[in-house]
Specification:
By secondary structure, the chain is α/β, with parallel strands linked by helices. About 40% of the residues lie in helices and about 20% in strands. It has a six-stranded mixed β-sheet, sandwiched between helices. A five-stranded mixed β-sheet has the order 7-6-8-5-9.
Length: about 325
């Protein structure tokens, strides 16, 4: 079922009446005051990095002469922050970063009363590759041997990385299914962030991890982790590992689109103002450095196009989590 995000936004705008921010538009341009950007995850994580990258690009590359403050509200796959953000109806100065699969997984798994279709889609910005990694002392030297072990004895291979129902666990579910391993037999330990995953891996409490290259990069560069595969279209610079596509496993990876949402209740003009601001940000050398530093690839999907991606992935995520016995 296709969700008409614009219809929801329009209805909310009608109910909201005179939305916050209309006076700024009448006074001659957006943004006319400070912006607040929520990262519904922990400091140092991918969402936090993205939010701070947007904020720094606004000021350093002089996109707008206003401040942007980043706040972190972690927990429950982003749904704690989402619940708070949903209350800020009609305010175009409130933005939230997220990525599609992680947050949709959190919504389904935690039975969140707030769904992304009730918010205003601003834009999809980028995609970032994830890596499947093992500790340097691991007996597994390639992904095939690890998957062979999982096929032979599923519970003997302990996976870690990311939240319950996140893209990491969904990718593992796809790899297991390809080897005839039932979703219920996967041994996956969810974590709140990359640091916790690394502790499990490096201590030997976990067999294999899956997380974004950006989060794993310090340990990869230090030689503490060996990369068995990455889920990007092309090989990742300075990472000596094949892509899942090269290994014939591209269909098992769950690709997530990172982007920005605004609250419900914005007028179409306000939505376009925010889209226009993000469009200026993404074209700056400051933002391009953020992309390069984090191995992110630009994937610009403004407005309704981003909304369509979210609606389509909602269906995909619900189906995968259903197979995992989550979100029921």
């Amino acid at each position: 079922m296709k969700i008409n995000l614009f219809a929801v936004v329009a209805a909310a705008a009608t109910l909201a009446g005179c939305a916050v921010g209309e006076s700024a538009e009448a006074g001659g341009g957006y943004p006319a005051k400070a912006l607040s950007i929520m990262a519904p995850g922990s400091p140092g994580g991918g969402w936090d990095t993205r939010a701070r990258g947007i904020a720094s690009s606004l000021s350093e590359c002089k996109v707008a002469d206003v401040d942007a403050t980043v706040t972190n509200v972690p927990g429950a796959g982003g749904t704690i922050g989402l619940a708070q953000f949903a209350k800020r109806k009609g305010d175009p100065y409130q933005l939230m970063v997220m990525d599609s699969v992680t947050m949709l997984g959190g919504i389904v798994n935690n039975k969140s009363p707030v769904d992304l279709s009730t918010l205003t889609p601003v834009a999809g910005l980028s995609r970032g590759p994830s890596a499947i990694v093992v500790a340097k002392k691991s007996p597994y030297q390639d992904l095939k041997s690890l998957l062979d072990a999982m096929e032979a004895k599923p519970r003997s291979v302990k996976w870690t990385g990311g939240s319950l129902g996140g893209p990491g666990q969904m990718t593992v579910a796809g790899l297991a299914k390809g080897r005839g391993v039932a979703a219920k037999d996967i041994n996956f330990v969810p974590t709140a962030g990359g640091g916790e995953s690394m502790n499990l891996l490096l201590s030997g409490a976990a067999t294999v991890g899956i997380d974004t290259v950006a989060e794993l990069r310090p340990q990869i560069d230090a030689g503490e982790l060996k990369v068995l595969a990455v889920d990007s279209e092309q090989r990742v610079q300075a990472v000596d590992a094949p892509t899942m596509k090269e290994l014939g496993l591209a269909g098992e990876a769950v690709s997530t689109l990172a982007g920005v949402l605004a609250p419900a209740g914005l007028t179409k003009e306000q939505q376009q103002d925010v889209i226009g601001l993000l469009d200026k940000v993404r074209q700056t050398p400051c933002w391009k450095k953020v992309l390069e530093r984090n191995n992110w690839t630009e994937d610009w999907r403004p407005g309704a196009e981003f909304g369509e991606v979210l609606a389509q992935q909602r269906t995909q995520v619900t189906a995968i989590l259903g197979e995992l016995g989550l979100g029921k």
